């Protein structure tokens, strides 16, 4: 009963989005740290891949299950909330002038759809290796060099990371407020932590395709 | 000053409305926005036309009855001000001003610029009260309240229930209103017994009325004539989570 009531309420749905989003952020940080090992050298990152597929295989599997559940909940709640929110103003204004809406919050929904497409393609690309038959399993380094040889791929990944940065800039900040843990502030719209984290994650990820393209990888 | 108005005219709730153009001549910059509309209405009455219906009552920024989307901004361009306290000096001679009602599914248009905001009253009825026994006024210092709490409770209690937060929100959400009403009681000792039940019931009612959810755009806070902070939404969310985690709805 309590659970149903929670699930039905707009705040409950937002809380589900916040928690699933935070799970995603934790994963992103781990994923980014893994990726950045490419700058140490081919052996380092390929060893890491072998480690994930060997000794850590069960942890990785558990993590995948958690991530898929979190992603499904996140998208599903976003879908429901978008419908509720659209229905809440059946007749649009002739003119409405947003005063403080950020580009990040404006691109949240469509950016999210784009990121969902990106996630699917990225998994087909680097995890299942379906997108490019010349990819070699467990040779992450070689695959990355092949993938980011194309300006289109570099562009696609970079744009996705830009949108990810926007998504996180709003998401990190608002998840604290949705969970009710952000302390009262004199400037409630200020979001330094979210800005810092979003920048680190977006740049940390975009660094790999860009570095490969510009030939900075060892 | 001389102005051109484009005003939403709608004869009734189920009749479609449209924008009409009016000239407002010889307006003093010292008039309030509502006084400017009064002048236009007098001219309309003289010409035998229906005056523009708009909500107002105290005209001193405390009752929450006035509304209006003015050039796409709830309560017009002046921050922290209700439409009744907005003066024509905020505009310049020759301006064209677009005036629309507050729009939300939960705020049906009654006529022209008047909308039905009783949905907000029902949110309050759902839990915006305390069940302390009333009687003679208690001694002022009988229940000590920390200064910070008292101040924050007063900040939330400044809400006049005008609905500008709903009007300005891209989602048509009443979260700021509900949060203010949840918090001004929840911050005080007298509001503790029903604190968790209150937030559950008021949020349920808010959703049932068809308001949208909160995406934390921050537009509500900007539009609020009392500049109530979205910190109260954070607080309401925290209370809501606590209430949901507690076993069932606490009785009494
Ligand atoms: S008329 Fe009372 S607040 Fe504006």
Summarize the structure.
The complex is a heterodimer of chains A (218) and B (252). Chain A has nine helices and no strands.
Question: What does this protein structure show overall?
Answer:
The complex is a heterodimer of chains A (218) and B (252). In chain A, 73% of the residues lie in helices and 0% in strands. By secondary structure, chain A is mostly helical. Chain A has one domain: Up-down Bundle (3 helical TM bundles of succinate and fumarate reductases), CATH 1.20.1300. The longest helix of chain A has 31 residues, at 57-87. The termini of chain A are far apart. Chain B has eight helices and seven strands, in the order E-E-H-E-E-E-E-E-H-H-H-H-H-H-H. Chain B has helices at 33-46, 118-125, 147-157, 164-168, 175-186, 195-208, 219-223, 231-245, and strands spanning 3-9, 18-24, 69-70, 73-74, 96-100, 109-111, 114-115. At the A-B interface, helix 1, helix 2, helix 4 and helix 8 of A face helix 6, helix 7 and helix 8 of B. The site of FE2/S2 (inorganic) cluster has 13 residues of chain B, from loops.
Task: Supply database-style keywords.
heterodimer; A: about 220 residues; mainly alpha; 3 helical TM bundles of succinate and fumarate reductases; 9 helices; globular; B: about 250 residues; alpha+beta; Ubiquitin-like (UB roll); Fumarate Reductase Iron-sulfur Protein, Chain B, domain 2; 2 domains; 5-stranded mixed β-sheet; two-stranded antiparallel ribbon; 8 helices; binds FE2/S2 (inorganic) cluster
């Amino acid at each position: 009963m309590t659970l149903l009531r929670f699930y039905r309420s707009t705040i409950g749905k937002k809380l589900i989005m916040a928690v699933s989003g935070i799970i995603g952020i934790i994963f992103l940080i781990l994923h980014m740290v893994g990726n950045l090992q490419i700058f140490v050298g081919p052996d380092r990152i390929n060893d890491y891949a072998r480690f994930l597929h060997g000794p850590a295989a069960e942890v990785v599997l558990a993590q995948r299950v958690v991530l898929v559940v979190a992603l499904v909940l996140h998208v599903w709640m976003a879908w429901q909330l978008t419908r509720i929110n659209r229905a809440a103003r059946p007749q649009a204004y002739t003119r409405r002038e947003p005063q403080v809406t950020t580009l990040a919050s404006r691109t949240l929904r469509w950016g999210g759809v784009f990121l969902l497409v990106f996630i699917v393609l990225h998994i087909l690309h680097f995890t299942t290796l379906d997108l490019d038959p010349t990819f070699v399993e467990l040779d992450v380094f070689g695959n990355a060099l092949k993938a980011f040889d194309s300006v289109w791929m570099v562009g696609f990944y970079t744009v996705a990371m830009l949108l990810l940065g926007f998504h996180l800039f709003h998401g990190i900040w608002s998840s604290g407020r949705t969970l009710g843990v952000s302390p009262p502030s004199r400037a409630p719209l200020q979001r330094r932590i979210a800005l810092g984290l979003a920048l680190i994650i977006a740049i940390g990820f975009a660094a790999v395709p860009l570095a490969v393209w510009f030939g900075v990888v060892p | 000053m001389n102005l051109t108005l484009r005003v939403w005219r709608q004869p009734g709730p189920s009749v479609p409305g449209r924008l009409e153009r009016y000239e407002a001549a010889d307006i003093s910059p010292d008039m309030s926005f509502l006084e400017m509309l009064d002048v236009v209405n007098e001219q309309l009455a003289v010409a035998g036309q229906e005056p523009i219906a708009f909500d107002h009552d105290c005209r001193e920024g405390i009752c929450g009855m006035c509304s209006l989307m003015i050039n796409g901004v709830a309560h017009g361009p002046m921050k922290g001000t209700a439409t009744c306290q907005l003066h024509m000096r905020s505009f310049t001679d020759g301006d064209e001003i677009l005036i629309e009602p507050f729009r939300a599914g939960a705020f049906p248009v009654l006529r022209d610029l008047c909308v039905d905001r009783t949905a907000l009253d029902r949110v309050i009825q759902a839990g915006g009260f305390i069940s302390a026994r009333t009687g003679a006024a208690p001694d002022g210092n009988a229940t000590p309240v920390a200064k910070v709490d008292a101040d924050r409770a007063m900040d939330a209690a400044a809400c006049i229930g005008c609905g500008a937060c709903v009007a300005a929100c891209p989602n048509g959400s009443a979260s700021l209103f509900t949060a203010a009403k949840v918090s001004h009681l929840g911050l005080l000792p007298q509001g503790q017994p029903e604190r968790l039940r209150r937030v559950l019931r008021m949020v349920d009612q808010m959703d049932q009325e068809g308001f949208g959810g909160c995406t934390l755009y921050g537009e509500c806070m900007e539009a609020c004539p009392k500049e109530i902070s979205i910190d109260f939404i954070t607080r309401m969310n925290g209370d809501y989570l606590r209430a949901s985690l507690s076993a069932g709805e606490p009785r009494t």
